[in-house]
Amino acid sequence: MTTLSSTSPQSISRRNLLGATAGAALAASGVSALAQSKIVLRISTPAVPDDWHAKMWTVFKDTLEKSAPGEFDVQINLNASLFKQGAEPAAMARGNLELTTVSAFDIAKLVPEFSIFTAGYIVRDPAQQQKIFNGPIGAEMFKLVADKMDITPLSTVYLGTRQVNLRDTRSVKTPADLKGVKLRMPGSKEWLFLGEALGATPTPLAFGEVYLGLKSGTIDGQDNPLPTVRAAKFYEVTKQIVLTSHLVDGIFISIASKALKALSPANQQKVLAAAQAASAYNNENRIKEEGQLVEFFKKEGLQVSTPDVDAFRKAVQTAYQNSEYAKEWPKGLLDRINATK
Ligand code: KDO
Question: Cβ distance 41 to 72 under 8 Å?
Answer without folding.
Answer: yes
